[in-house]
User: Fold these one by one.
Assistant:
Number 1:
Amino acid sequence: MILTVIVLSLFLLIVLITQAKINAFLSFLIVSVISGILLGMPLDSLILAIEKGIGSVMGSLMLILVLGAMLGKIVADSGAAERIAAVMVQLMGEKYIQWGLMLTGFIVGIPLFYGVGFVLLVPLIFSISYRYKLPAVYIGLPMLAALSVTHGFIPPHPSPVALVALFHADMGVTLIYGLLIATPAIIIGGPIFGMTLRNIRPKHELFFKPVGTEVGSDYRVPSAWISFLASLFPVFLLIIGTVLPYVIDTDNEKLLSWMKFISNPTLVMLLAILFAGYSLGIKQGRSIKSIMEIFDGAVRDIAMILFIIAGSGVFKQVMEDSGVSLALANYLQTLPIHPLVLAWLITAVIRGCIGSATVAALTAAGVLLPLATGGHIHPSLMVLAIGAGSLMFSHVNDAGFWLFKEYFGLSVKDTLLSWSIMEAIVSVVGLLAVLALDMIIT
């Protein structure tokens, strides 16, 4: 009965989002209420579970996600992202142009949401394509592979941050493991796979503004080193805060307390915002008012993502309070399949049905949470296995599929042969890297 309700709940969620076109947040709420009733939860307990689910998830996530959105917005609007791109292309030269664009996508993709990074960097791809007479898909896919992988694996992106909170993983450890796992996924799915795409060309030429024209003439574009530092500032702080306690051998509780405080993800993002506001804003001639307008826009951009994550928290809480989590954990542990592979597979199936990587990851988390609570699986690896599954085979029900197709002027067939296969490659390689890391650390 329990498994039947879970399967029906997931099926209903998929139908509501894909066929009925109902907003993902409302779909989560509807399915959570129906699931709670079918599972026999007392009605007053069901209402409490809904309220508790939203509060428990958003209480630990909202500040990180909002501050992360602000950082990405000012990196984009200040011209720092374009400065990074120009430097990477210049360093690599024409021979290694794919690798330069891949590194650009990786660095810029850490603070920027995927959609923002895509729209911001596609003009660069076409500018280089025209300049060096190279196919746009061939040189551009490595950059987009890097953007996609950071979206699925690396905090402070919404999905990894939400999963870290749900599985009670350490943010810094997840970031370090995510960087290790992302590296082979990006290399194989980017430049190596991209070498096979030289013959895929757009049906029509697309023209974009030269890089840098989006930045207003009243403001200076930040220098290269400031652009790199502001974009990677939270990464540096999180890694330092995670590694330092293992390097410094001290019994000073006050010092350890300060180290833990400074490495807290919320404080890290706050410090990153303050640094970016000054270095990318005030120092470049922007007023406090104009910087705050950028931050206000970032909050508006992320509002619906916050609601979707809140909805997934409700679903998770109903699964827990109804007793399903315990029963499901006992059942899943009897399956002859590695828990990390199972997590990847369930997420990949939901991703294929729904299309949204974020919604797929958060939906799967509500079902898979019991697997990580038994202590047999490292929570950070569970986060990354789900992240890998959420990237699996983007196709016609994914907005990213159509974004790539239309910008690059491709047919559906060529989009499947390039974009969709690239997403499948980074997903599978990500899973293999997670399994390899699991063998090393356990």
Number 2:
Amino acid sequence: MTGFNQVFLDKITQCLCPPGNGVFTVNTAKERKEQLHKALYGFTTDIDDLWQRALTNYNGEDKAVLLGVASDCGGGILRGANWGPLFLRSTLLEQHNELKYFDMGDIRVIPHLLHDKYLNDATISNCRKALYGNEQSDLPISPLSITEDVLHDFYAQNTDKGIFAIGGDHSVSYPLTKAYLQAKKAQGKRCAIIHFDAHTDLLIERLGIDLCFGSWCTHILDDLHAPHHLIQVGIRSSGKPKSHWENTFGVKQHWANEVRELGIDRVINNIKAQLANENIDELYVSFDIDALDAEFASATGTPEDDGLTPEEAMKILTSLSKLYPITGGDMMEIAPFTDSSGKGAVSAEKTLKVGAEISAFLIEQINQM
């Protein structure tokens, strides 16, 4: 078992920061950050040094590698999913302390940037100076761009490991899945994406922006062996019918009302039937917390009623994991400071609890690689 080589370490110590520090603040959530660092490293000071030492000492024993991407610049309703990585990590440590994984840290996020392709040369130069102390650096500076760049190197050197990422708004899944799919193709593997969401995320663009929380799926379809290897579960908030999305993009969908009308077992069998003759080797699970009914997950930017229960989501995941290895995944759109239920901290606690349960299951699966 091996850890990270020196070239990769040199990159991530520049492009990443310690777990929980992806949102650059002085006082906001300071106590929670200190609690996280205490749990991870035993101290609340000299965290940069302790984090870098942990990166160097990682021996590869834990196959599941955690990555936080604390960006909500690609969202567009209620913001606040940038706090998801910090809060969900704390919940995982508190409620699933037996879980095995290596925490690689957070992508360094300049909060008003999304992707480098939207920036002019002067902005890129200034931001490279701010992030890396070198305006001549060739490293990317926007969260989506950094994530994709780092993960291309990660997968090239760590074929026996998998990433579980915590966002962030759902635009973050664009670089996560793109790097994953391209790496798996290079390895000769056929992979499917199981996407839990209340929304299709299949816009071509939203208000002129082509990479955002509502469009990321559209722009990874070419990285799949076939578009119907994107299977979406829990859809219910759409201005167009299911037939539009399936016929236009070639994806497969299982709307939330089908779970009510057909029952969860029938829906699971339908998903299995779609995958049965596709020679799928591995699965990636992208989970937007709003796939769950707002009763269970209201601390998110776009909570929706009439969604899945946590038990239904877990039954789908458990059933599929018995047939296919889950080798990558993410949990998106948990926004602990938002509240559509009127219950304040109770709402956040409930959302984090179910988010942690699903995340823990996915991390366990990745660790079995």
Number 3:
Amino acid sequence: MIRRLTARSLLALPLLLLAGLGTARATPPNLAVQPVSRMDTPWWRQRFADKQAEIAHGRFDLVWLGDSITQNWERTGPEPWRQFAPVWQHYYGDRHAINLGFKGDSTCHVLWRLDHGELDFRPPPRLFVVLVGANNFGHVHIDAGHTYPGITRIVDQIHGRFPAAQVLLLEVLPSIRTAWITANTQRLNAMLRADIRRDRPWLHLQDVGAALERNGAPDPTRFLDPHLTPPDPPLHPSAAAQQDIARMIEPTVAAILGDHPH
């Protein structure tokens, strides 16, 4: 039943579970680790189909996997803060790379995608760059303690399919949304640093939050959201900040792929 959940039923599930508990003794399942489809969302369904075709007909050494922050690599201006594609082309254009970022995806949606074709690469990729978790703290409202096993399940599923590949996991980026989100972002990243690399020699963890900060705090000028009309709370890196993220991870990417630094 869980595998047939959609994005709409995801939000209704806690109420349905509580209605059926009676004594309220049962513990609801952790939604962060349950594969959840968004195929009822037309643009998402079309993007998923397009990416499946890309996977089926290409060779990819490098896979970026995540949410809208990753999807933004495909944006092109005209404003400078939207000019992501030239940065992608500089760092990844000659590296057989694919962008598997989907706006709004939480860990549960990424897990569904992995179960339904986003690991069907031939030949196997050499590196996965994973950035996910920010949306768990948003509309789905899943805390750090429940999000952590969702992230471990993602990286373990990648490794289970491609044991020779390396995974570069990026810590959840800072944002300026709510105090609850900030606290859970910090807690989740502390949990990742403390434990996730244990018994996972193929996993690399990197903190790239400094690309969005000034004097140790999130800097609104490093985000694209304040430029929107109407403005949104700062969450997504601007093109310049995302370029800094690419620059920060470049030594690891080049070492794993065995090519020259870009």
Number 4:
Amino acid sequence: MKVLSVASEVFPLVKTGGLADVAGALPLALGAFGIETRTLLPGYPSVMKAIGKPAKRIKLPGLLGEPATLLDVEHQGLKLLVLDAPAFFDRSGGPYVDATGKDYPDNWRRFAALALAGSEIAHGAIAGWVPDLVHAHDWQGAMAPVYMRYDTRPERPSVLTIHNIAFQGQFASTIMPGLNLPPHAFSMEGIEYYGDVSYLKGGLQAATAITTVSPSYAEEILTPEFGMGLEGVIAARIDDLHGIVNGVDADIWDPQTDPMIAAPYGAATLKKRRKNREEVAKYFNLDHDDGPIFCVVSRLTWQKGMDLLVDAVDEIVQHGGKLAILGSGDLALEGALLAAASRHRGRVGMSIGYNEPLSHLMQAGSDAILIPSRFEPCGLTQLYALRYGCLPVVARTGGLNDTIIDANPAALAARVATGIQFSPVNSGGLRQALRRAFRLFDDRKLWTQLQKQGMKSDVSWSGSAARYAALYSSLVQKGI
């Protein structure tokens, strides 16, 4: 089977979040099921630099009014179709925002072009390679099923994956003339959304099937609390909705072979983990004592519950713990956490920004990771933590609920617990979870048991890739 994946970011070429990890790892895992995936992604400067000289070039003249070329290349095992369209993607800022952090005003056009290119590939733009199915990711890829639906050529099945429904690609209706869509596409059954255009809403209407990244999140987005205004659209497609939990690349995230950590180790050699713990303390200027090191690797936003973390810092320090923070986001939250680090020198350290090697070291050297998200479609950070024996302390929501087994008395007795869940998701709930973590940490034998149980968890893509393969096969066999 041949599958075209349409994504705005793909690890290791470009990454701002978990979408890139999924778009980079799932195609490799699907290979075991006889599925050949080619991934269409934008030709950002970093991507163009990394791919060197491409093997093939396919012209797409006049792609939404701009010249574009498809570059057919292979990079670290991934088969890629890079959309080389300088007018859209050759920019000095990030994938979605400029150097000042503001959205590019023509994002609507940039990612419509990506999606339109995907539709053209689905309809035979590449001689000798026509996909059986198109898999689009998030709002940036969601227009691919829309363009396929309104094309007069035979349609192929498509899947749209919602990684985070909070980001919907909503724009003013004035962009309609620039989208190369028929006027009737601007309707309730199409891309119209309260008088605006919504790329995600259009994709939800047009895709043959919809997936999201955990079973719990699939249930949550049917409610007004989590559906972000699209719960009605999704409820109408409930028979086509599938919750499939994400996996991680077990080769990249492996403490026994990870070149980014100070000392490799495994479940049978946990004592070697101490060297990584020392390096984390050194990097963040934390006191070298036996108090637990909690870490945070996250966007610093309200969604991620970072305001709850601000409220909990003093509690961590008062109980003898330490805190290492890596991330960036809301300036007010950054400032509040920097102030906490200044107030608690030796107990709280912070690094602003994105640092992939440091994130690996933090998982390998911290005792526990805090993930107090108000909603979390899947989350990958807790899966990395399980692999590295870093105990996840998580809010009971979305994929966090599906992937972490709470250390309640029954789970501890059965020796199946892998972390701590808390609810309600507020300051009191987080502080109570922290007190539980301190009590567990005081029993080192029990803590080691939890670490080893977590490290036994299968968080690879094998099971989830099998579910995607089965879904693809059913859609291709069924046809449109």
